What does this fold into?
Amino acid sequence: MAAQRINGTEIAQSIRDEAKTQIQSRLANQGTRPGLDVILIGDNPASKSYVGHKERACLEVGINSTVHRLKNDVTKQELLNLIDQLNQQEHTHGILLQLPLPEHLQPQDFLEKISPEKDVDGFHPYNMGKLILREPGLRPCTPLGIMTLLKRLPLNITGLHAVIIGASNIVGRPMAMELLLAKCTVTVCHRFTSSLAAHVKQADILISATGKPNIIQSDWIKPGAIVIDVGFSKLSNGTIIGDIDFETAKLRAGWITPVPGGVGPMTVATLMHNTVQAANTQSPCPTIIND
Ligand code: NAD
It folds into this structure.
């Protein structure tokens, strides 16, 4: 039987709707909206497109968003000054530095300068540390969005074997921590892993985040597995594809995300969720006391 399709677009809409409701109640109680400041450097078309999605989502849910568009040759000091200014600014609750940066700038020099309470991408070492220590905090959007997808399935994932392909700071590593928190047994594979097929064949939950189309052969997939494709690659004809061939993989998997329409919308919706969370932590709505 063909796998059930996990509809990320639909689930992301429900997360944005929840954010919108929370923002309306914040507006009614204290008259302010959450504010998100996005820093976009240079003219990388993919980055411009991602920032466009984020701006549209902010508009839909009612977050005040500002995009700071900087030239490709911005200096380290200029970028640090902007982050400093946004850290101080009261109406900025979330700061997002769109990656990748131009070659002369190292992401870590800036990510750790963002105030941890405004770090809506969850990439600050403080927030990463909180995730590792199982403490509440702002968590990276893509792995957290994937956990939301998994929680919406009518399945108990406790004790399942999750295999993650990719070990980057923004997807693979925090994904491993999320799945450990969810009581899965976790294997992380990367470009130096030998016998990739043998690992994939054992996966009850397979999460692929490499950006290498067709890296996973569909006949490696364990029958009935939950398959989450994070990969996002654009072919020369403009088609968007993931790491896994959806049409053949769905004949073996139990559940599967499409690309596009799977993980991507969840990342943006989770950013909205995180921005509301950051705003509520920095300036909580006053409790209404009836006496
Ligand atoms: P990255 O390049 O930082 O990391 C890729 C990872 O894949 C590395 O850990 C590398 O070791 C591993 N890898 C590469 N070749 C491999 C191989 N042959 N076998 C096993 N592992 C291999 O990329 P990233 O930033 O983590 O993103 C990965 C993919 O996910 C990209 O396609 C990106 O566009 C996509 N992505 C999508 C979203 C979304 O919201 N949909 C968000 C983030 C990233």
Remarks:
- The chain is about 40% helix and 15% strand.
- Residues 35 and 64 are 5 Å apart (CA to CA).
- The two ends are 60 Å apart (CA to CA).
